[in-house]
Amino acid sequence: MTDEQYIEKALKLAKKGKGYVSPNPLVGAVLVKNGRVIGEGYHKRFGGLHAEVEALKSATEEVKGATLYVTLEPCAHFGKQPPCVHSILEAGVQRVVIGTKDPNPLVNGKGIRFLKDHGINVTVGVKQKACQKLNEAYFKFITTRLPFTTVKIAQTLDAKIATLTGQSRWITSEAARKQVHILRHEHDAVLVGIETVLKDNPALTVRLLEGVNPKRFVLDSQLRIPLDCQLLSDSEVRKTIVVTLREASKEKIEQIQSRGAEVWQLPAGEDGKIALPELWKKMGEGEIASLLIEGGSQVFTSVIKEKLVDRVIIFVAPKLLGAGIDCLQDLGIRDLKQAVVLKDLECEKVGPDLMITGKIG
Fold it and tell me: Backbone dihedral region of 322: left (phi > 0), alpha (psi from -120 to 50 degrees) or beta?
């Protein structure tokens, strides 16, 4: 097998950590000696052993002289775990093949330099783009302290997210909805506007597969959230965070908090609504590295206008409504040159629907 094939194997291992390791990165490692895999591992949970150490511990024979393939640069600092480079050196690894550098200021080349300085042969940049894509949320968070933000839209072919009467269940298929539950599991938090709560009373949990329930944010400037809604009455209520303005009703805040949910009070922006950049900053301070926005059209529009979105995922059902609620409202664009352009487009079929993914910026 080639270096690329071993890194590909490490990438598959790394993906097993999705939903469990944030705000740490996803990392996979494969240990090879004399053309045979003698160990492998991945970062399984936040605070747990790193992938490199997992691979070394799983070795079926002496490691001395082996090659370690790892998707991300090994750490050289003390955190919740000791530096991986020390374990690699002590084990007698002869060569390390790295998918991509770690932009974390605590690492950022230090791990590579340590290994080289101690006589270990190091190769960097094997399947680099794939390794970087795997950790795009981590890369964004660790360099900006802001969450990597995905807007998820479920719509008809003519870009409607509901009928004129507000009916939206279900525009897309169960297969598409399962993909959404996978996205919830993979993100640290989900966010909706108060209109979505009032119309749909969503749970925003992971139910169609086994996974981790994300934190649940509601934008609610006037604290209109019903005290008996699912977000304030289910078993995951302590993961609910209602975001409102500083002038909000103290009585309603106390009622929400008495149910176990949090309330974040933030300043208003120029439009009198919650200042979204301040919210994103506070999320980052709370170690929220990835955010999934699920509705509705006013929220989609606001976050795109504020340039807070990194990725858009649109589930398109083969249906036409004609009149209905548009997926986006006015973005203030009056010139085609100002259009928001998506890049790195991907399209796949999910049941009868299409899932289109693109990056912004």
Answer: left
Using H for helix, E for strand and C for coil, what is the string for 306-324?
CCCCCEEEEEEECCCCCCC
Catalytic one of 8, 40, 52, 236 = 52
The DSSP element (H or E) to which 52 belongs, if any, is helix 51-57
**Rounded to whole angstroms, how far apart are CA atoms 75 and 84?**
5
Name the 3-class secondary structure at 194: helix
* Range of the structural domain that residue 95 is part of: 3-135
- Single-letter amino acid, residue 245: L
156-206 pLDDT tens trace: 999 999 999 988 889 999 999 999 999 999 999 999 999 999 999 999 999
- Give the Cα-Cα-Cα angle 256, 287, 301 (nearest 5 degrees): 70
* Element containing residue 53 per DSSP (H, E): helix 51-57
Instruction: Say which amino acid occupies 70.
Output: V
- CATH number for position 30: 3.40.140.10
Which tokens hold the place of 37? 């895999």
Domain assignment present for residue 140? The answer is no
User: Do 212 and 311 share a structural domain?
Assistant: yes
What DSSP string runs through 203-259?
-----SSS-PPPEEEEE-TT----TTSGGGTSTTGGGEEEEEETTS-HHHHHHHHHT
How far is it, in rounded angstroms, from Cα 335 to Cα 305? 15
Contact criterion met (CB below 8 Å) for 84 and 50: yes
Do both 88 and 167 map to the same domain?
Answer: no
Element containing residue 36 per DSSP (H, E):
strand 36-42
User: Is the preceding peptide bond at 170 cis, omega within 30 degrees of 0?
Assistant: yes
Shared domain for 202 and 55, answered yes or no, is no
Mean pLDDT of the chain: 95
Q: Is 52 a catalytic residue?
A: yes
> What's the predicted TM-score (pTM) here?
0.93
**Do 111 and 174 sit in the same domain of this protein?**
no
Q: Is residue 47 over pLDDT 90?
A: no
Q: What gap in Å lies between CA 174 and CA 5, rounded to an integer?
A: 34
First to last CA, the chain: 37
